[in-house]
Specification:
Helix content: 10-25%
Strand order of the largest sheet: 6-5-4-3-2-1-11-10-9-8-7
Number of strands: 11
Low-confidence stretches: 10-32
Mean pLDDT: 86
Order of helices and strands: HHEEEEEEHHEEHEEE
Strand content: 35-45%
Length: 200
């Protein structure tokens, strides 16, 4: 089962910052400032469908070279995500609701019920929840910090204890309402970086 999860998890690879509040002193009338992370997630979620090319590189300590792949990412509201790898070998990963399927080449698809695999579901939500604009789903599994501004931002997802044994951190860079780079650092130090191209 560990190897099965490891095969699925890299394809997908939150938010706990509260809304800013002013001082409690009566003389301070500064209005609360919106949380950047919440604002970014809300803006991402305004786009109902996406279709982008991606380029991914995985660094695994046991290997002498990185593993590179490329393909397409497709999203459709609500909650439908496809990662179609074209090179070096065809692979299709589809998430719809609580069902995840993975097919390699012409072989049959393996199907997983995410409701029975909490850690894998949390990895999926790290990508799907921002696309859905679902801050609540992110906060269920991650604490999140944000840097930058709404034009150029970075979100850092720190797993809560139940996930920390699998993932050390997930960092998402983006511009405006689009994610551009997703970095996943696994608990063992292995990393993967996915670069998402803007629409053609």
């Amino acid at each position: 089962m560990r190897n099965h999860k490891r095969a699925l998890a890299p394809a997908f690879m939150a938010l706990a910052v509260l809304w800013g509040t002013g001082s409690a002193r009566a003389q301070d009338t500064t209005p609360p400032q919106p949380d950047l992370a919440a604002t970014v997630i809300a803006r991402i979620g305004m786009v109902p469908a996406r279709h982008n090319a991606f380029h991914e590189s995985k660094h695994i300590a046991a290997l002498t070279h990185d593993l590179d792949s490329s393909g397409e990412l497709i999203y459709a509201r609500p909650g439908h995500v496809q990662k179609i790898t074209r090179a070096p070998r065809p692979e299709t990963l589809i998430v719809q609701g609580t069902t995840l399927s993975l097919a390699r080449g012409q072989g049959p698809a393996r199907v997983v019920d995410l409701s029975h695999h909490a850690q894998l579901a949390a990895l999926v939500e790290a990508i799907r929840a921002p696309l859905d604009g679902d801050i609540t789903a992110l906060r269920h599994d991650y604490a999140l910090a944000a840097q930058g501004d709404v034009a150029h931002w970075t979100l850092q997802l720190t797993p809560l204890p139940a996930m920390a044994r699998y993932v050390r951190t997930i960092t998402i860079d983006g511009q405006n309402n689009a994610m551009t780079v997703i970095r996943v650092v696994q608990a063992n130090g292995d990393t993967q970086v996915m670069r998402i191209d803007p629409p053609a």
